[in-house]
User: Which sequence fits this backbone?
């Protein structure tokens, strides 16, 4: 059985006779097609069965996924469960025909193996070329012009939910947050949003306010921006100064308290009374004012860890306990990255970020650590937007301009995530490039095979070394003249 783009991508379940015991990852594995020349497959979700999955332009084995990608080999790669049997030895020795007969007798041990089937353009796993490796989920695979994300199947307990303009994406994290916000909006109880800086707490608050259907306003209060001594008047109001206070302003709506751990402890006790009784009294006031407000507090640290909140009263934490909602960092939401990009930096039609980036550029964005999360992504995409045209999609060389080779926070970036954005430390010298061009008669594909690199990487070396097309032609077709033997590009 080989899939075509028009086929149902759901594999039939393995027969009970083929399983000796449950797979270590009970929910199984699947891959998502993030981008591909085969537009019918884009956004497809393909299960990986116990027998694995063969991927290529026209895979000769089954189960197979057929991808209409001219830069992909006929049978490009096999992905399947790691097995505790002679199958491992058979795969690694290249005896592929033995795999199917062994897999029926093997016991899965929980991981996923990835084996390149001697493809012409190689299999790239998390930015590095591999012939055989064990995947660490989630894993980003680039096969020719197709980029895949391999990850475990989401917990079935996470309810399905439709993506919204404020909370896009179909990852388990995105669906979990949307479901939790819908639950909180329905009951009107206080909500505690926590996560790293830039994970979208304000977007989540906007979504909560819309879901609640409240007629009152959404009022935002950044506590770190309030001067010492002004907290009480700003929050509760001041009778003699005629200030209503943010709580009163949000009556009938939603109040966002950003960085609630900045609120002094004595005022946290006063806020607790508002949460419990629904009344507020201004500074210098003699009467309580009844309010109907849904409170949203945000923080960077996990409220379930008591050591992380020494500046928040325990009884206040408990008041928010029914709706503690974690927002995952962007580096853990690779499946949602393109949808988030279209949300925060939209492109003019007909462009989207999926069509604006080539496969290698998308791979770089997926592997970037995004220490500043959506704030960093917005800054990078804003710079990239200036480079978008109708002639070609953006390439890794364009990302070098936008990403400055490191996250805006200044943290260290794993080399695999940016190896295509700058000249690698192992880049051949100009003299070495000259030798390679002479030795292989200017054949870039031959140089790439000899160096174990993708041919596009070799072209980048030549670009960094400022080797023009005219200079490259000197080495092609025939061996250079003796007078050229000592020249350098």
Assistant:
């Amino acid at each position: 059985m080989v899939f075509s783009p028009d086929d149902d991508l759901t594999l039939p379940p393995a027969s009970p006779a083929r399983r000796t015991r449950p797979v270590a990852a009970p929910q199984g594995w699947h891959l998502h097609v993030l981008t591909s020349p085969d537009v019918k497959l884009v956004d497809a979700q393909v299960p990986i069965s116990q027998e694995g999955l063969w991927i290529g332009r026209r895979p000769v084995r089954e189960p197979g996924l057929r991808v209409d990608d001219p830069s992909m080999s006929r049978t490009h790669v096999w992905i399947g469960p790691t097995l505790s049997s002679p199958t491992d030895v058979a795969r690694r020795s290249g005896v592929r025909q033995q795999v199917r007969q062994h897999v029926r007798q093997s016991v899965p041990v929980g991981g996923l193996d990835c084996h390149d089937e001697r493809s012409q353009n190689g299999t790239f796993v998390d930015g590095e070329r591999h012939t055989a490796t064990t995947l660490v989920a989630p894993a980003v695979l680039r096969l020719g012009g197709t980029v895949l994300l391999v990850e475990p199947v989401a917990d079935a307990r996470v309810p399905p939910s439709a993506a919204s303009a404020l909370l896009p994406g179909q990852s388990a994290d995105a669906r979990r947050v949307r479901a939790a916000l819908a639950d909180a909006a329905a009951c009107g109880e206080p909500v505690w949003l926590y996560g790293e800086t830039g994970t979208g707490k304000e977007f989540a608050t906007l979504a909560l306010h819309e879901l609640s259907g409240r007629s009152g306003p959404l009022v935002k209060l950044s506590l770190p921006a309030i001067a010492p001594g002004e907290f009480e008047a700003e929050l509760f109001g001041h009778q003699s100064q005629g200030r209503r206070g943010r709580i009163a302003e949000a009556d009938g709506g939603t109040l966002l308290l950003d960085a609630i751990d900045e609120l002094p402890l004595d005022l946290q006790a006063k806020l607790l009374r508002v949460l419990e009784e629904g009344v507020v009294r201004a500074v210098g006031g003699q009467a309580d004012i009844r309010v109907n407000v849904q409170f949203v507090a945000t923080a960077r640290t996990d409220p379930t860890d008591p050591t992380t909140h020494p500046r928040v009263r325990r009884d206040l934490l408990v008041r928010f306990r029914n709706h503690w909602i974690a927002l995952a960092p962007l580096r853990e939401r690779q499946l949602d990255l393109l949808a988030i990009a279209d949300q925060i930096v939209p492109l003019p039609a007909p462009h989207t970020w999926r069509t604006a980036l080539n496969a290698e550029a998308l791979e770089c964005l997926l592997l970037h650590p995004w220490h500043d999360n959506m704030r960093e992504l917005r800054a990078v995409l804003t710079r990239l937007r200036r480079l978008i045209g109708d002639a070609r999609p953006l390439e890794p060389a364009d990302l070098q301009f936008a990403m400055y080779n490191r996250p805006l926070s200044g943290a260290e970036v794993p080399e695999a995530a940016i190896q295509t954005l700058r000249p690698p430390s192992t880049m051949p010298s100009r003299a070495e490039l000259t030798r390679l061009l002479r030795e292989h008669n200017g054949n870039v594909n031959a140089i790439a095979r000899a160096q174990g690199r993708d041919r596009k990487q070799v072209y980048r070396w030549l670009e960094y070394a400022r080797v023009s097309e005219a200079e490259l032609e000197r080495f092609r077709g025939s061996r250079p003249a003796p007078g050229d033997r000592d020249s350098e590009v």
User: Anything to note?
Assistant: The mean pLDDT is 80. The chain has 18 helices and 19 strands. Residues 11 and 49 are 7 Å apart (CA to CA).
